[in-house]
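User: Please predict structures.

Assistant: First:
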Amino acid sequence: MQVNRDKIKVLYDEQTIRSRVSEMGREITREYSKNSGILHMVCVLKGSVHFYSDLLLNIDMDISYSFIQVASYSGSESTGRISVKSWIDEPIQGKDVIVVEDILDTGRTLKYILNYLKRYDPRTLEVATFIDKYEKDHFGIVPKFTGFRTDDKFLLGYGLDYDQSFRNLPFVGYVPIEEDDESDNSSD
């Protein structure tokens, strides 16, 4: 697949994203502000960084941060292997923890992360995902907080990438799949 910026169609524009992320921040504040202690938010790098930053700015309570960097994609396809590049550096035992993920697609990477974090004995362990591809099973993972639910498109922008490109788009877009490309069907 080759991706050109001019072929990307907007799915969620900047204002729609900003509004929904703000609403999610209020939802999390309502859910956790009654608990004593600091909420611990774990960002799954790199794709979640924009969502994570914007979400945390909209949560009205004390938050501690951690970052995890894992990889399982090459281009638009999952490799089926999970590579851990960095792990949390703060204790989470007895804490309310929310793992912040950019997109819940197959769920393989997130399942690995959640299973590993459970070993640290958090008080609660939940997921906030920017986008949930609802047509997929996700290994049974059900996020507590979801920004948007969409069908199975290859998405770009607002942290989502294609081979490390297009993360900085202020919107989420997709590239429509073209059924027939006339240049491919020409005869000599």
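Second:
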Amino acid sequence: MADDGASPLADATGFDWDDGNAPKVVDRHGVEPGECEQAFFREPFVVSYDSGHSRLERRWRALGQTAAGRRVLLVFTMRGTLIRVLAAREMNRKERRHYAEISARTESDPHL
């Protein structure tokens, strides 16, 4: 498997939520599982490999937004073909700026 975000997501068939990770994601930063899932299907969705936190399993970080426009950072891994969100929170100032730059570029050139 390549160390980029596109490879594992191309084979994804759904999400892996259980009694362990769903409440943890909500309790820490108030991001609901449904909001996390929405971000995976909205453009732009910016994924980067998180080599610093990938000792036991590969992890990725993503910037995206919910259907309501809430901008979120997601940390996830793949469990087989299922996406398992490990953490989610609203983007910080630096992340919002980066996401806005990418949004502007993709609006001017949708092939990026």
